Write a sequence for this structure.
């Protein structure tokens, strides 16, 4: 198929391939940008989650030390709970006031600042929407030396939201203490980061496409048109002259002018030289034709003279033939007379003998 394409179409095809390549490169970077965006969003989530975990771990461990120091000399369990409440009830954190400290004795709640009605209730069967027994899990984690548990929990005004809590045992007691923070703000932060990244990517893409479009319109397209004209125009003139020469209508004095300094100039120079040689051959042939015409005229004149001479000779030959025929007739008459004379002599001789 490519062999059937003209030079113009080949150049345009080259431009098209270049545009496709540019589009592929842009698409690749857009795809890579999307992957990078997702990685950054995930990284933001990990960083914010780690920060939240570090915050509640440090807070829980600090309060644990304070509580342990406050109740170390108290043996009465109820008194311990009263002291603990005095120490932690007013500790509320987070901008939405959703952070608080809670205390459990195994799976029974002993201190719950936002919901005092739950204090004294065994919450071992409390599950999140995913089926996780979160109090049991926190208790086991605390007994193992402390750690984190992630689960889904109701957030006032927002319903079920992801939450992470840290729990550890209060030294010298069977109580464990913990706190937690909702991490739905992490998803919101990720969405915000995603929006910012998408906006920045869109701006960058717009700028890149603008530069590409400007470069194509200012450089590539005019250069392509210039190349097409600089190649096609001389070729068309050359084809036209060759066509005229082939049809016998060419002006052999015309010459191609090309000062481009490229291969087309070299082609034009060789074409001009070819036309000069053809012109010289035709001049030589024309000169020889003139001589041939003169010789032909002489031969024609000679043939005319020969035809006239032949006519005279034919006439004379006719006269000679007539004279010859007349002479032959006379000779025949003489022969007949001689024969008759001979007969007469014979008769005379016979008569003489008889006499």
């Amino acid at each position: 198929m490519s062999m059937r394409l003209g030079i113009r179409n080949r150049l345009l095809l080259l431009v098209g391939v270049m545009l496709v390549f540019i589009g592929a490169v842009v698409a690749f970077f857009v795809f890579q940008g999307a992957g990078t965006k997702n990685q950054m969003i995930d990284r933001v989530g990990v960083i914010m989650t780690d920060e939240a975990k570090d915050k509640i771990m440090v807070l829980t461990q600090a309060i644990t030390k304070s509580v342990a120091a406050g109740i170390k000399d108290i043996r009465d369990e109820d008194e311990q709970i009263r002291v603990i409440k005095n120490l932690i009830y007013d500790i509320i954190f987070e901008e939405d006031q959703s952070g608080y400290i809670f205390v459990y004795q195994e799976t029974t709640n002993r201190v719950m600042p936002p919901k005092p009605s739950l204090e004294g209730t065994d919450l071992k069967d409390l599950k999140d929407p995913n089926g996780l027994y979160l109090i049991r899990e926190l208790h086991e984690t605390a007994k193992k030396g402390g750690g984190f548990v992630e689960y889904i929990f109701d957030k006032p005004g927002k319903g079920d939201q992801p939450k992470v809590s840290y729990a550890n045992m209060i030294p010298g007691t069977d109580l464990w203490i913990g706190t937690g923070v909702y991490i739905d703000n992490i998803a919101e932060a990720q969405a915000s980061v995603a929006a910012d990244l998408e906006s920045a990517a869109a701006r960058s893409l717009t700028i890149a496409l603008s530069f590409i479009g400007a470069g194509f319109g200012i450089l590539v397209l005019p250069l392509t048109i210039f190349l097409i004209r600089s190649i096609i125009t001389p070729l068309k003139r050359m084809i036209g002259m060759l066509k005229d020469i082939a049809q016998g209508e060419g002006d052999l004095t015309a010459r191609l002018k090309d000062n481009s300094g490229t291969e087309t100039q070299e082609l034009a120079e060789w074409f001009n030289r070819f036309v000069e040689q053809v012109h010289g051959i035709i001049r030589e042939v024309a000169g020889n034709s003139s001589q041939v015409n003169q010789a032909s005229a002489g031969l024609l004149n000679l043939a005319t003279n020969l035809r006239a001479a032949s006519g005279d000779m034919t006439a004379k030959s006719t006269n000679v033939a007539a004279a010859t025929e007349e002479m032959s007739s006379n000779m025949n008459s003489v022969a007949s007379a001689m024969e008759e004379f001979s007969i007469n002599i014979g008769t005379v001789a016979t008569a003489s003998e008889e006499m």
In short: The first helix runs from residue 7 to 71. Residues 351-355 have pLDDT under 50 and may be disordered. The chain is about 70% helix and 10% strand. The CA atoms of residues 40 and 283 lie 83 Å apart.
